Amino acid sequence: MKPSNSLAHAPATRRNREPIFNVLQTYLPDPARVLEIASGTGEHAVYLSSNLSQVVHWQPTDIDPTALSSIEARRQSDHHPKLFPARLLDVTAPTEMPQGDYNTLLAINMIHIAPWQAAEGLMKLAQNLLSNDGVLFLYGPFWQADVSPAESNLAFDASLRQRNPLWGIRHLDEVTHLAKEQGLIRQAVVPMPANNLSVVFRKE
Ligand SMILES: C[S@@+](CC[C@H](N)C(=O)[O-])C[C@H]1O[C@@H](n2cnc3c(N)ncnc32)[C@H](O)[C@@H]1O
């Protein structure tokens, strides 16, 4: 994310937003009340909340105040009736957990760029917050037991670990196990461009 004034831009969002939109169109509840974790620049929040017809309410959040400024600047730059003001949320801090009537939790490119505790916090949040049949959507690179790692993901993983030894691409089986412990069943794994996956969990 490169800040320019308060409006930050992450180049990957332009490339991945359409494929993500296509998967969400299939798996989102209708109507969808979405809590987005780690919204970053806010580009996905703006694009997806505006274009997904199922969405009636999109709440962007992030741990980083700079990200919140960017999300808010984007939100106010145009008419986004379904997009709510960005809120501070650290998914590892249970005392700050939001309340609300949400049936969708979404985290794009987060669990590998944060310590494993962020994945744990995300699953606990999903268990506490989602209504029955609610959906948790993850997007990013994962290691899969039956798939050889892509060269690009090996290099990306090494660069993440160099930046922070607690970061790194997660094993899909371990994430699925963590989800199951919190009552979330894996519903779909969708291959995405550039060796990423969309992973959809549903609360039982
Ligand atoms: C690579 S960015 C992804 C942003 C956006 N989802 C996207 O795809 O463009 C990772 C984001 O995770 C956020 N993040 C890291 N740790 C977090 C935590 N514990 N709780 C909430 N957000 C966190 C960072 O502030 C950052 O905005």
UniProtKB/TrEMBL annotation:
GO terms for molecular function: methyltransferase activity. Keywords: Methyltransferase, Transferase. GO terms for biological process: methylation. Gene3D superfamilies: Vaccinia Virus protein VP39 (3.40.50.150). Pfam families: DUF938 (PF06080). This is SAM-dependent methyltransferase. It comes from Marinomonas profundimaris. The lineage of its organism: Bacteria, Pseudomonadati, Pseudomonadota, Gammaproteobacteria, Oceanospirillales.
